[in-house]
Design goal:
The chain has 8 helices and no strands. It has one domain. Helix 2 packs antiparallel against helix 5. The protein starts with a helix and ends with a helix.
Amino acid sequence: MMTDRHDWLMVQVDQVGEAVRKIAAALLDAGDPEQLVELDEQTDSLLEDVFEHSHITVVDSRTAALILRPPSRIRAYARLLAHKARLVHELGRGVQGEGLARRALELQLEAAEFEPDPDKIDHESIDALLDRDPPLCLGPRHQQLLEALDSTG
């Protein structure tokens, strides 16, 4: 039974990885707005099909992380949100992009808190989200999680 859950999770992570690669490639070649719009729609479908995004968005990040567990699934969702944030920013929807990026950062921090193996924490994604201009504003809980993560290395 546990093997079935692991296999299902790996399929989801692979799907998200492929979507992230497509988004990254499209953003590097951001000359075709129609391609970006199509990719935006595909990303919405993937978010809904794999993660039930419409349900996850109505709860706070902590609750979303509890729903999305294990940490690898939280990280996959957060990575996809971060790339979606860049995508919608390129489409001229900066406010939406900022909200998605903030949510992605919050979820990466939640995943880090749940992760028993410190080597699996996605420091690169967290750093990339922290390097945004303008900087993302975090609430007290996520500031604490960030400080705790910084103190552990």
